[in-house]
Amino acid sequence: MIKLSRYVLYDIVRSKIILGYTLFLLIISFSLFQMEENNSRAMLSLLNIVLIVLPLVSLVFSTIHYYNSYEFIELMASQPMSRTKILLSEYAGVSISLLSAFLVGAGVPVILFAADATGFALLFTGCCLTLVFSSIAFWASVMARDKARGIGLVLLLWFYFTLIYDGLVLMILFNFSDYPLEKITLLLSALNPVDLGRIFIMLQMDISALMGYTGALYKDFFGSGTGILFTASIMLLWMVLPLWLAVRKFKKKDL
Amino acid sequence: MRISFFIVLFFSFSCHARTIIVGANESCHSLKQAIIIAKDGDTIQLKPGNYKEGSIILTKSLTIIGENSPVLDGENKYEILLISGNDITIKGIHFRNSGYSALNDFASIKLVDCNKVTIENNSISNAYFAIHVSNSAFTVIRNNTISGTPTSEQLTGNGIHLWKSNNALIENNQVKGHRDGIYFEFVTFSAIKKNLSEKNIRYGLHFMFSNDDTYTSNTFRNNGAGVAVMYSKKVRMEANHFEKNWGPSAYGILLKDISDSYIIHNTFLKNTVGIHLEGTSRMDIQENIFKENGWALKVQASCEDNDFHHNNFTGNSFDVATNGTLMLNKFDNNYWDKYEGYDINKDGIGDVPYHPVSLYAMITEQNPNALLLMRSFTIQLLDRAEKAIPGLTPENLVDNKPLMKSLKL
Amino acid sequence: MIRIENISKKFRRLQVLDTISAQLIPGQVVSLIGPNGSGKTTLIKIILGMVRPGSGEIFVDGHLISTDPAYREKIGYMPQIGRYPDNMKVGQLFGMLQHIRNASDEKTDKELIGLFELEKIFEKPMRNLSGGTRQKVSAAVAFLFDPPILILDEPTAGLDPLASEILKEKILQGKRKDKLILVTSHILSDLDELTSHIMYLQEGKLQFFKDIDTLKEETGELKLGKAIARIMKGEQFSNNWIDKIMTLRKDEKIY
């Protein structure tokens, strides 16, 4: 599998899109830290990149890569190689390249300018979201019949996770504001990896405000390691589950 | 010289002199006994040891000095030292295990009707109330270390408690683990300086009906509810540090029915709410640093004529929140890190006014659960839409001269 | 060597294969023939595990193929249209295949690479290759690991006559080595001198599977194409496809 991933990785590096993504992140991050007088604003902009741009890039890049390497997948399928191995190698190649692009493009500036708890939370979330959204993209690609449908599906998913979902949550909060919604809100945020990542960063960036929350559940959640443990494990589930579904489908798929 | 030495020696041996030494190996074994035989102006020197003498009452003008922190133990039953008199100094003693009483506020050191009493360099541990002062003037409480054993709000008393006093000086003490670190009620013309009050169950400083006081250069950290200043006038709060006061009702400062006071040069760092203002008027709030708080300011609609100027607001989750649409307070010349305007004429002042209350801040006031959506893309879009076409946020809560660069404070 | 048991496959509503059963043994050169869309390629892909059968089972060397992908070590596959990763160079392709299969140089058969003079284009990326050259690469890949089974899908289509002869010679050599060779083609002429068995598919059904001598006996024809045509006609098969075979027979002299 490692051998196969190496070839996938090699192919991705050659395509130069990853290089462009790295440079984009690097330029944006550096200019944010240089331009802004205090880091808090730069971190805020970086947060937006991590929560909005990064899922989009991960989704679209992974999907395009999947369809572009269809020949490679076919070739490998005619070799003594299990389907699971082939798809996981593809995933490993894609996620490793996206991860390294993020770690170089955003990680280096963050470590240089803002190496604190918030900075590391941001990097951790970025890494998690990269893995989650390439996993989701693989699932969508395996499900969709062709490239156009695949890209359409992931764009829809991106729109849903970054924008529509929170709007729905806000609507629920207002329509049912007479009911105790604390547990529901927490549960709802677990159903969206972007929200989960956002809360993880908020645990560092906005802990003062979060501690203002009434309700023992939140205090417990935000005040201790429970919150970090919870977000980390749900995040892990978000990485594994779509990939597992993708593998399951891929094994039965006619190439 | 030699004669005087002999005199001192003679008096100390006979328990009838200016300095009385109390200790296990001395002729005078107990502090109580020493107080009985002492006359006004005498000094009692307490040798190291553990003294269990129940409640000690002191009315004479004495100086009691502990040598190497002798322990006065209240055995969890007694009020250790009850003082009522003038010109008294208590120094260098460790008060331990004073009793608890639901009826009387038992204290390790209690001052009633005193004048010019100094409590200095003592340490007090495991007390119900540590130092309890009532109806006294010119009290000095300095360099004491007070640490309580916090249980519940009912079972724990205050660290330094002053009631109906004037001209007190509370300086350089460390208080932790009590209900309120420092408590002032009906205390006037007094100063609280350079104290550290932390990890108290309720307030680091609780301040009521106390006019014309100053508190400067104190640190209030990690208290259950921060600092409350209520029903008072002409209070000067300067150069204090309010840090990590976290909780649903925790504030850097809670201001309630305060007027004509100053809040200058303070630092508010990582509090749930920096300053909460309620029924507050004519305050001058300037040159403070508000950094990484949940809400830098919560200004209730019941406040008027407060002037917020030349403050730095950076890294706060919310800069200002309010519960109404009417705003009778003034904001100008502050630095807001969320300000996105421009400065074409380069005078350091942004050309576009800044509205520090966001739509989202209004939403969370109404629906606290929405807090979990903070910094979400959806929320940012909503905020931007509101900034473009304001409709719900108070229109006159505005800084017309937002600074482009932060102030050097 | 390959046992096909009651294989059926539907693509949506279209019945592509309908209860196909056959047993292929070493030393046979089986021509799988049938009109376009008769299910030849699907059957091959099912044997290779690239398409999952709707029902039925396939055994290679007595092992059920759906359980372990290792059986594909025994199969060399030459696809109808070879598709390879665009960025990969020809040399890298061979290197990679050898690498992922852990095959030492002694275990490989690089004769075709030499005969097709592929070393000359080792530095060319796959995307720049013409259709014919791609076919040469595909053929070389199929024979690379000297497998006991060869599955060749339309091997001579698109090859120039010289290359075609080289390949035929190679297939013959395989036959002599007692390999099992399965070839699909609709141009019978190319391979009739090699073929030992004919497997005829039409509309997803296996019409017959007979050895060449029996066929000739039954039809009395010496030439294979005519033999088949006779059979078709005798069994009332009126189909454009057979006419096509005949016309191509006439055009044979073009080569």
**Mean pLDDT score of chain B:** 90
In N-to-C order, the SSE pattern of chain C is EEEHEEEHHHEHEEEHHH
Task: Report the portion of residues of chain B in β strands.
Answer: 35-45%
The secondary-structure class of chain B comes to: mainly beta
From the N-terminal CA to the C-terminal CA of chain C, the straight-line distance is 35 Å
The beta-strand count of chain C equals: 10
Q: Helix- and strand-based class of chain C? A: alpha/beta
Quaternary organization: heterotrimer
Report on the structure:
The complex is a heterotrimer of chains A (255), B (409) and C (255). Chain A is an all-alpha fold and 255 residues long. Chain A has one domain (2-252). Helices cover 86% and strands 0% of the residues of chain A. The mean pLDDT of chain A is 89. In chain B, strand 1, helix 2 (31-37) and strand 2 (43-46) form a beta-alpha-beta unit. Chain B is elongated and about 85 Å long. Chain B has a 14-stranded parallel sheet with strand order 1-2-5-8-11-14-17-20-23-26-29-32-35-38. With 409 residues, chain B is mainly β. Mean pLDDT of chain B is 90; it is low at 12-17. Chain C has 255 residues and is an alpha/beta fold. Chain C has a single domain, classed as Rossmann fold (3-Layer(aba) Sandwich), CATH 3.40.50.300. Helices cover 33% and strands 24% of the residues of chain C. Chain C is built from 8 helices and 10 strands. Chain C has helices at residues 40-48, 90-100, 111-115, 131-143, 161-176, 212-219, 224-234, 240-250; strands at residues 2-11, 14-24, 29-33, 55-60, 63-64, 75-78, 149-153, 180-184, 197-202, 205-211. In chain C, helix 6 packs across helix 7 (224-234). The longest helix of chain C has 16 residues, at 161-176. Chain C is globular, with a radius of gyration of 18 Å. The two termini of chain C are 35 Å apart. The relative contact order of chain C is 0.17. The model of chain C is unreliable at 236-255 (pLDDT under 50). Chain A binds chain B through residues 37-38, 40-41, 44, 47-48, 51-52, 162-163, 166-167, 169-170, 173-174, 177, 181-182, 185-186, 189, 194-195, 198-199, 201-202, 205-215, 219, and chain B through 244, 246-248, 250, 270-273, 292-295, 314-315, 317-318, 337-338, 363, 366-381, 405-406.
